[in-house]
Amino acid sequence: MSRGLYVIMATITHLGLVVLTAGLVFYITDHDVIVEPDAGTLLGPGMVLGSMAAVFFTLARAFGVAARDRRAPRIPGPAFAAAVFTYLAMLVIGSLGYALIRDEPVWLVLFAARYALSVFVVTTAVWAGVVVAAFLVLARVESARQHRPPRHDDL
């Protein structure tokens, strides 16, 4: 299967898991994932788009480096990088967005501090690492299966 298709499938899988997480957080806590009433309806989706971009570009880079070096993609490094980049992207996009909405720069720090340990942001970052690791393992298995010599069953 094409590496580009793996990247797109991983990004969409990540989106599905994030939507699941947001729904569960809302159902269990009976609060929105972004609790500020003046945040608007685009701040949360903007943060999710940032996390999707982190998954997309991390996985695309891992496949690109593996193709350049003619080897199987490594797993722990890109998975950890996707989790870290997702976490940072969500906090930066959320902080910038809310500071622009409030028109006060102090919200850059306050928003990031408030959501640094929120269930939504942390779980989304964990999902990003898991999705990238899972799709890298899938790509390794697929490439090993393609390079295996054919078996002959002569019974």
General description of the model:
With 155 residues, this protein is mainly alpha-helical. The chain has helices at 3-29, 43-69, 76-102, 107-115, 119-146. The longest helix has 28 residues, at 119-146. It is elongated, with a radius of gyration of 19 Å. This is Transmembrane protein. It holds the Pfam family DUF6121. Keywords: Membrane, Transmembrane, Transmembrane helix. InterPro entries: DUF6121 (IPR046124).
Number of strands: 0
Output the structural class: mainly alpha
Q: What's the N-to-C terminus distance?
A: 32 Å
Give the overall shape: elongated
How many individual domains? 1
Note the main sheet: none
Average pLDDT taken over every residue: 90
Approximately how much helix is present in the residues?
Answer: over 70%
Protein name: Transmembrane protein
Keywords: Membrane, Transmembrane, Transmembrane helix
Organism: Frondihabitans cladoniiphilus
Keywords:
elongated; DUF6121; transmembrane helix; 155 residues; transmembrane; Transmembrane protein; mainly alpha
Short description:
With 155 residues, the chain is mainly α.
List the helices and strands and how they pair.
Layout: H1 3-29, H2 43-69, H3 76-102, H4 107-115, H5 119-146
Transmembrane segments: 7-28, 48-67, 79-101, 113-138
Organism: Frondihabitans cladoniiphilus
InterPro entries: DUF6121 (IPR046124)
